[in-house]
Specification:
This is Type II secretion protein F. By secondary structure, this protein is mostly helical. 83% of the residues lie in helices and 0% in strands.
């Protein structure tokens, strides 16, 4: 009986707060592009965050989430990214609590399923924060893999007599199909700034801040220190940096290959067990007869 009471209370609370949040934040939320998955519970989560003042109560956690979201999604989420992600955490935890309670009721008030739902409610936010770190790591790996190719193209164009600014613009405009690439998204912003006649030094500085990656900082600092000098020294500096970035790319590719091979271990063991069962089952049946 108590489980019915908890389940019904949860549903009433979520529905009431959802309706209240929709009345209060409906126009605001519809006018903004929400990058996460649980958008339909956003009014409820928004209301909970503002009512309990969660962002103010946990400033350290909020600042960490804000930095992670800005690193992953860019400055477009600098104002609302941490609040949106907190709303996503609350929505996911609420769904886990509701699903666990409903399944426990359908199973005949099974307290073990209810306990599993409570554990899932507590663990899900931690897994989502960890997934955010995983996405950041994958984005940075992709940028490291793509940066040497971009730099090699710039070196070729500069050797052919092109200026660094024009070489940068031509490299990006020559690959319109790579708009889903995290590196080329930032490069497109840099190209737009160059076309707006912003100084090349300022463009490099902003590009490095947006990427927030050591290899990109090394790339921009080398360009910034040598592009005004030009000549043979500039080409040599770019060529040396290109070799270093290619070595870094090889290291990342080797790491990704090792991760892929390790993921195949469990399927291979499972296939081996299945094959052994298929082979051994007839022999065991014959021995029993």
């Amino acid at each position: 009986m108590w489980m019915w009471t908890i389940g019904l209370s949860l549903i009433i609370i979520v529905v009431a707060l959802q309706l209240h949040g929709r009345r209060k934040y409906g126009e605001l939320l519809e006018s903004q592009a929400y990058p996460f998955r649980l958008k339909y519970l956003l009014p409820y989560s928004y209301y909970v965050i503002d009512k309990l003042q969660l962002l103010e109560r946990f400033p350290d956690f909020t600042s960490k989430i804000h930095h992670k979201c800005m690193t992953l999604y860019g400055r477009s989420l600098s104002s609302q990214g941490s609040k949106w992600f907190m709303a996503e955490l609350i929505s996911a935890s609420t769904l886990c609590a509701l699903i666990g309670t409903i399944l426990a009721i359908l199973a005949g008030n099974d307290s073990s399923i209810f306990g599993f739902g409570i554990v899932a409610t507590l663990v899900t936010p931690m897994l989502m924060v960890r997934d955010l770190d995983t996405q950041i790591r994958k984005k940075q790996q992709r940028m490291i893999l793509e940066l040497p190719e971009f730099l090699s193209t710039i070196v070729l164009l500069v050797n052919a007599g092109e200026t660094v600014n024009r070489a940068w613009i031509r490299c990006v405009q020559a690959k319109p199909h790579t708009t889903d690439s995290p590196l080329f998204k930032e490069l497109l912003i840099a190209v737009h700034e160059l076309e707006m006649n912003i100084s090349f030094t300022k463009v490099l500085e902003d590009f490095s801040k947006r990427c927030a990656l050591h290899e990109v900082s090394l790339f921009t600092s080398t360009l910034g220190l040598n592009y005004k000098r030009g000549g043979h020294d500039f080409v040599v500096a770019l060529h040396s940096l290109s070799l270093e970035l290619w070595q870094r790319r090889k290291s990342i590719s080797r790491t990704l290959g090792e991760e892929a091979s390790s993921k195949l271990v469990f399927p291979m063991v499972l296939i081996f067990v299945v094959v052994m069962v298929i082979v051994a089952a007839p022999a065991l049946l014959m021995m029993k007869q």
